[in-house]
Write a structure and sequence with these properties.
Rossmann fold; 7 strands; alpha/beta; binds hexanoyl-coenzyme A; 7-stranded parallel β-sheet; 11 helices; binds NADP nicotinamide-adenine-dinucleotide phosphate; single chain
């Protein structure tokens, strides 16, 4: 991992990073980057077996002597379960310095066929889940003068077809982030969002782009490659580090310039995928 070559291996030693949805994909990549710099890491998700497997990977990285990992099942829609997970993390790892809110759900759906509950489900996981996590983490973050990092998406500001639910949820997350940056700045707590571009090998990309779309995307992205989970992990490390101590309320786009060329490729590809699945 690049962070281990460029940054002091004890940068986050004795600090605790809690990642919601940290059992897989981008969020696990973020957790790994912090673990590589000595942090204690806690992850939550709905599936204990998935978290246990991720915890094995995180422990194997364990850069600092005594660095610990806590893997606890909790659905971010259940504020009480999340509070219990935060309490356990505090008991085992000490007070939280960084909350990464990354738990999310997504599927392609034409708006006219999306049920109210389908729309609500994504709002509940992404937006309400981010609020539950932020509020639940506040006392610990106030104590440590820590920071919040939200994993947003390009749909927050660049409309994607068949993603009305996700666009609304992620736009809400970015505004939640800005509100909390204002409200909690007086406690020394910072809040920022990361907008990942298309990230190779992830569930999210698999759900939105078939191999043909991915090939076209690579040609269209100004940097001519997909992102990696480490690209996002490194951005999170920067935002949590002392290098970013005067940065709050920002949406940091890490997408190889994909937003500059828009969502048209995604839109066409999504239509083909829905058509093939008989859903459009
Ligand atoms: C239409 C759908 C649907 C689909 C579910 N629903 N899938 N509607 N098309 N493909 C509807 C259901 O019919 C139901 O409404 C409601 O949504 C809730 O469905 P459940 O299956 O009960 O929900 P739940 O078990 O809570 O699961 C949540 C989920 C699921 C979001 C639906 O896919 C999930 O668990 N996802 C987590 C993993 C994930 O999505 N990872 C990708 C994140 S990427 P009714 O009316 O029937 O009751 C991301 C952005 C990526 O967020 C950006 C890439 C560039
Ligand atoms: P992923 O591996 O499916 O990550 C989502 C994680 O959230 C999973 O570990 C999932 O675990 C967890 N989760 C889902 N619902 C939950 C709930 N109700 N409570 C707790 N945890 C829950 O997909 P990913 O593609 O890496 O996405 C990670 C983040 O990056 C998301 O916020 C996504 O919106 C964002 N993003 C991804 C891309 C991309 O290219 N992939 C681009 C832009 C933004 P369980 O199912 O076990 O609960």
């Amino acid at each position: 991992m690049l962070v281990q070559q460029l940054l002091p291996a004890d940068l986050f030693r004795n600090q605790t990073v809690f990642v919601t949805g940290g059992g897989s994909g981008i969020n696990l990549g973020v957790a790994k980057n912090f673990a590589a710099l000595g942090a204690h890491v806690a992850i939550c998700g709905r599936t204990q077996e998935k978290l246990d497997a991720a915890a094995v990977e995180l422990r194997a990285i364990g850069a600092a002597p005594g660095a610990k990992v806590c893997a606890v099942a909790a659905d971010v829609r259940d504020a009480a379960a999340l509070d219990a997970a935060f309490a356990r993390s505090q008991d085992e790892l000490g007070p939280m310095n960084v909350l990464v809110s990354g738990a999310a759900g997504n599927f392609l759906a034409p708006a006219e066929k999306l049920s109210s509950n389908g729309f609500k489900t994504v709002i509940d996981i992404d937006l309400i889940g981010s609020f539950n996590a932020s509020r639940g983490a506040f006392a610990q973050l106030q104590q440590t003068r820590g920071c919040l990092i939200y994993i947003s998406a390009g749909m927050a500001y660049m409309p994607h077809a068949f993603q009305a639910h996700v666009g609304a949820a992620k736009a809400g997350i970015d505004m939640l982030m800005k509100n909390l940056a204002i409200e909690w700045g007086r406690y020394g707590v910072r809040a920022n969002s990361i907008v990942p571009g298309p990230i190779e090998g992830t569930e999210g990309l698999k759900r939105l782009a078939n191999p043909t779309v991915k090939d076209s995307l690579v040609q269209a992205v100004p940097l001519r490659r997909m992102g990696t989970v480490d690209d996002i992990g490194q951005t999170a490390v920067f935002l949590a580090s002392p290098l970013a101590s005067y940065i709050t309320g920002c949406v940091v786009v890490c997408d190889g310039g994909q937003n500059l060329v828009g969502s048209a490729l995604f839109n066409r590809g999504a239509e083909q995928m829905l058509h093939a699945a008989g859903a459009a």
